[in-house]
Amino acid sequence: MHRVLACEQCGAELTASGVRTVRCPYCASPSVVERPAAAERTDPRFVVAFTGDASGARGSLDRWLGSRHWFADPKLRRAREARAGERVIEDLRGIYVPAYLYSAVAHADYSASIAEHYHEKEERTKPDGTTETRTITRTEYRLLSGRHVSYVTDVVVSASRGLSHRELAAIEPYDFRALRRYDAALVSGWLAEEFARSFDECQTASRREALDEVGARLRRFMPGDGFSDLDWHAQISWESLDPVFVPVWMFAVRYRDDRPPLRVAINGQTGRIAGKVPLSWPRVVAALIVLAAIALAVWWGLR
Ligand SMILES: [Zn+2]
Fold first, then answer.
1. How far is the CA of 9 from the centre of ligand 1 (A)?
2. d(CA 156, ligand 1 centre) in Å
3. Is 131 part of any domain?
4. How far apart are CA 99 and CA 242, in angstroms?
């Protein structure tokens, strides 16, 4: 029977074919229990495979954390220093994260007021009797309306419980030219999360994101020297939504009981990294004071 590892802390459900884990890779919680999978489950249609192995991801993680080390919360610094040199396998895990890949064709009817600048020469007689010519910029407005067709591709919406849409967006883009048809053998040996958000929910979110993109394209498309009163409404004439697995390296550590875990996500295809390091505020303030002092010294020197 198909079984999943369920995290009692964050709710993520992972299948682990041939992989063992005692901590949740998303939230570092030790309360991971094994339970039978739900009868109805979504299988991905496509997969973006991991490129490279854990050592590459570990290298970029070490550099990323290292460059933030001095500013980090002291407890985190101590935890890192104590573990320098020691490689903890459990804390950096590769996960196939469930997501939906969306493409659409949208027809947008728009109208806007387009500003056009033009110059006029004006002659003026000065009080002393001489004349001077100056150039004045004037603006003319004209109404523009029409229909704009957009083909929006590669919109990705997280269907994961462990990795929010915002966190996934921070390590995008993925190169979907490397998309492969899903095959259980492709993900064997990796953790893979079950789809936690419904098709409908992800479709609504994808459409919203695609329409935001249409709006952004319309604003870029507007001619002239400026525009105002852009009004548009779009209709989607074609769309596709496919469940996919995207590769993510997750680094999650609990370094303090009273704080949420430190979480860093790394794009398993491109190596793009994102996360938030809990800061040591006294050190941040100290650095700002030093910077202000340098700026003041430079300014003083230039006077
Ligand atoms: Zn968890």
1. 5
2. 22
3. no
4. 8
Per-residue pLDDT of the chain (303 residues; tens, 9 = 90+): 577 899 999 999 998 776 777 789 999 888 888 888 777 888 999 999 999 888 888 888 888 888 887 777 777 777 777 666 555 545 789 999 999 999 999 999 999 999 999 998 888 888 888 888 888 899 999 999 999 999 999 999 999 999 999 999 999 999 999 999 999 888 888 999 999 999 999 999 999 999 999 999 999 999 989 999 999 999 999 999 999 999 999 998 887 778 788 889 999 999 999 988 777 778 888 888 889 999 999 988 887
Tell me which residue range forms the domain holding 229: 3-108+145-302
Residues bordering ligand 1, an ion, CB closer than 5 Å = 7, 9-10, 24, 26-27, 29
Assigned domain for 134 exists: no
Count how many domains the chain has. Answer: 1
- Cα 129 to Cα 12, 121, 126, 132: the distances in Å are 83, 19, 5, 10
Its pTM stands at: 0.81
d(CA 270, CA 191): 19
Using the mean position of ligand 1's atoms as its centre, give its distance from the Cα of residue 135 in Å: 66
Note whether residue 116 is domain-resident: no
